[in-house]
Description:
Blueprint: H1 23-29, E1 37-39, E2 46-50, E3 61-65, E4 70-77, E5 90-97, E6 107-109, E7 135-137, E8 142-150, E9 153-159, H2 161-180, H3 187-201, H4 205-216
Helix pairs in contact: 2-3, 2-4, 3-4
Amino acid sequence: MGPWDIMSEHFVKRNEPPQGLSSFTRIRLGWIKAEQAAIVRPGETKCAFLAPLAKGGETLVVKIPLSGGQYYLVENRQPIGSDRILPDTGLLVLKVDTEAQEGSGTVKIMDADPSAYHFSRAAFKLVMGSGNNYFEDPSNGIVIIPLWVEGGKQGVLITTPDKGREALDAAIKIQKLISSFPEPRPKGRAVQIEKCRTLFKSIAFSEAGALARKGID
Length: 217
């Protein structure tokens, strides 16, 4: 996990405070309760909104169980509290292999930008035209898409490859609409944005994207 967990690497920058702990380590220490983890199985399509990992909150991680004792963890890493020094911010995707020996890849970061040095742009973000705005595992039929922020919580969608492109397109349009009309926004725009969000969360991606596009045009 490199600089994303103090148990893996002791600092991000010399002479700066150390980084915090990943959701994997926090779960092992008992710092994340079962009810703070949203379980989404391959083949399902669900949204979750994650509080910053270091801040704590009702939902802190998404767990996606795989075969053979493997699973994904999705966490929201922000420069808050023990995470105030991080190489990047956004959604971090971890793959856990419980059968791997300690120190031999028990946990691996699914790097959003492998071309960047040492996990320095490893987090996924909802940015139009960016190559690191979603994660896909075709062999397990999983797509992970970062969404917009609501109430200080980072949204994430877990879906399938057949729905991924449409969902990503709709999410980007909704994010653009939200950014175009920051709060406090006119009542009509607020209603429109909330309707887009509601449609998206009900898995009506095409309708949500179309409504958001009208608001942008």
